[in-house]
Amino acid sequence: MELHQLRYFVTVADLGNFTRAAEKCFVAQPSLSQQIIKLEKELGQPLLERLGRKARLTDAGEILYEKAVKILASVDDAKRQVTEGAESGRGRVAIGAIPTIAPYLVPPVLKEFTKRYPKADVTLHENLTEFTIKGCLEGDLDLGILALPIEEEHLTVEPLFTEELLLAVHSKHPLGRKRRVTMTDVTEEPFILLSETHCLGEQIVSFCKQQECLPIVSCQSSQLLTVQELVALDHGVSLIPEMAAVLDRTKRRKYRSLSGTKPTRTLAMVWHKHRYQSPLVKNFIDVLREHAQLKDQ
Fold this sequence. Notes:
alpha/beta; Arc Repressor Mutant, subunit A; seven-stranded mixed beta sheet
């Protein structure tokens, strides 16, 4: 049993496809397939079911997969620890964050982190939840910043803080002057919603259903800034994360806290359970925790 065989096997299991696994491993597909066949012969039973273009783990494959993931993680950890160098102020940190968090939470954290560790090389990858999780699982990202819920057994999930979603209205909208605003008031208004490709869009729809109030959706956008601009043009109202509202300097919008049950979201950071964390990555996590504690106060 060779390490490269295990790596090929795990990659096929993760991607469910031999062709994409070969591309990921930078090897020809016939060569990859041959190595997995050798592995199966050595173990005396099939590890993968070939279903057309798809590949699925057999019962034996499930057992090997769990062990192989840990073995490869340990090998990668050893390699990184040996080659990384002892100085914690140097190195790479790859951060992933979803678009409704990245522009608001990450900049002040990066500012503080680079102030403490000016020699660090930090990259930020802004993408949807699905791809941020994938980046953490495949080792392309050291850390992801997302909104709960997150259900992935190979990731450590640490909640950071909970923030309110505020009602955004045009500056001269009647709801901006009303003493008490509830979700019932919102159901009478055209609603501008972030598209459901974003987890925030799904969370808002879920909250509305729980309150038995389904606003009339007049427009959907894939960009939070577009939603805010449409509100400023009086095309409708929306629910906006508090962190985005705090940084909004325009006088064309007002933000109201809803009475009764308030819509919220909880932010969290995630990382692969079995990946080695360099001192620099751990330092970034500490700075992020500090920032989150200030938010919670």
